[in-house]
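Hey, quick one: can you model this chain's 3D structure?
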Amino acid sequence: QVPISIVFDGDRFDEGFRADIIVNQSVILELKSVEQLHRVHLKQLQTYLKLTGCRLGFLLNFGETLMKNGIHRCVNGLPDNPSI
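Sure thing. Here's the predicted structure for all 84 residues.
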């Protein structure tokens, strides 16, 4: 996990949240291991993208039978993925 600092209303929080993996300061990987993803998981990733300024994120669910079914892409500024 990577601690991410944020600034909100002029106040700095050194550990605003913890991202699972950040690749090259541009892509966030949020890892889950649940039977079924819920909207709250997607919203969490969207919030991380907005706070960091990253444009691309992936929600990876290791609880799926087939990993290819557990990969969901999220692009900051585009509509939500209706499959979650």
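One thing worth noting: The first helix runs from residue 39 to 52.
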